[in-house]
From TrEMBL:
Gene3D superfamilies: Aldolase class I. Pathway: Amino-acid biosynthesis; L-lysine biosynthesis via DAP pathway; (S)-tetrahydrodipicolinate from L-aspartate: step 3/4. Its main location: cytoplasm. Pfam families: DHDPS. It comes from Novipirellula galeiformis. This is 4-hydroxy-tetrahydrodipicolinate synthase. One of its GO terms (cellular component) is cytosol. The keyword Cytoplasm applies. Homotetramer; dimer of dimers. The keyword Transcription does not apply. Keywords: Amino-acid biosynthesis, Cytoplasm, Diaminopimelate biosynthesis, Lyase, Lysine biosynthesis, Schiff base.
């Protein structure tokens, strides 16, 4: 996949500060493009597996490259261990090789992350999404040892998920540079909101960087990221694919057009409340009902629901249009 700005970079120093950066093949480039972090549908307090399979088929039909079950969007903190494992297994079985599956198997307990990841690998997951350990706020050495332990325990690729807004602490660039030398760690889902962070990772490692913020997909691809793990893709996967493919092909005019088309949807929808609260409400409005939320997540208030409906209508979506 060719990044938006092509193969010419200004002189960039590597982490040893004595060599000029050159474009290299990315270890996780087979996960470039659109990945969608799907929601977990609940009905009467239970996981609705038929609805889960419908979501998978919707993504496959749209051309989504990779499906990511049981991430933040999938309300992973509220799933039991049995549910967590079963959702991943159901998605893998439903996908049946038609796309990749990157299973969300991270934890703030290294032992638990190892158990979940080994189980997902045994079920046939193509990769694992490993969120930074949350709440206990490890040191940078703790981050390094945690991800290294996971990577050494399984043979599937590891995507390190850097999201300090959720986890309370950032995985620093120097730590990611160290992790790039660990066999099996091939990707970073970068959700710090910092283009400088993305630039530094691309410029000094051979990891594939995936945007963790829908509204920053184009800016991040412009400095070398290769795709997005998307929330908005639950609603409009084809439009997200258009954006990512245009950026990858260097079609700046089309990429900018798609970016500005999607920007208001990304900002106005996801800015209403914590993900996946507004997403589940939007899916209901456009006829792709994913059921209820689990506490402590609660539904949007009436004012926010009105704003969400206006946002969806402005984008061109209604109950008969979910493309």
């Amino acid at each position: 996949m060719t990044c938006l700005i092509g193969s010419v970079y200004p002189s960039l120093q590597n982490r040893d500060s004595n060599m000029t950066f050159e474009i290299r093949p990315r270890k996780g480039s087979d996960f470039a493009g659109l990945s969608v972090a799907i929601v977990t549908p609940f009905t009467d307090g239970e996981v609705n597996y038929p609805r889960l399979r419908e979501q998978v088929e919707f993504q496959i039909e749209a051309g989504t490259r990779c499906i990511v079950p049981v991430g933040t969007t999938g309300e992973s903190p509220t799933l039991s261990h049995d549910e967590h494992e079963k959702v991943i297994a159901e998605v893998i079985q439903c996908v049946a090789g038609r796309a990749k599956v990157m299973a969300g198997t991270g934890s703030n307990s290294t032992a638990e992350a190892l158990r979940l990841t080994k189980r997902a690998a045994a079920e046939g997951a193509d990769a694992t999404l490993q969120v930074a350990p949350y709440y206990n706020k490890p040191t940078q050495e703790g981050f390094y040892q945690h991800f290294k332990a996971v990577a050494e325990a399984v043979e599937i690729p590891v995507c390190v998920y850097n999201i300090p807004g959720r986890c309370g602490k950032e995985i620093e660039v120097e730590t990611i540079q160290r992790l790039a030398d660990v066999p099996g760690i091939t990707m970073v889902k970068e959700a710090t909101g910092k283009l400088d962070q993305c630039s530094a990772i691309v410029g000094t490692t051979d990891l594939t960087v995936l945007s963790g913020d829908d509204s920053l997909t184009l800016p991040m691809m412009s400095v070398g990221a290769e795709g997005i793990v998307s929330v908005v893709g639950n609603l409009v996967p084809r439009d997200m694919i258009e954006l990512v493919e245009a950026a990858a092909a260097g079609d700046l005019a089309k990429a900018m057009r798609m970016h500005h088309k999607l920007f208001a949807l990304c900002q106005n929808m996801l800015g209403l409340s914590t993900n996946p609260i507004p997403l589940k409400a939007a899916m209901m409005m456009v006829g792709r009902d994913s059921g209820e939320l689990r506490l402590p997540m609660t539904t949007l208030d009436a004012s926010s629901m009105q704003k969400l409906q206006e946002t969806l209508f402005a984008y061109g979506m209604n109950s008969a249009l979910a493309k």
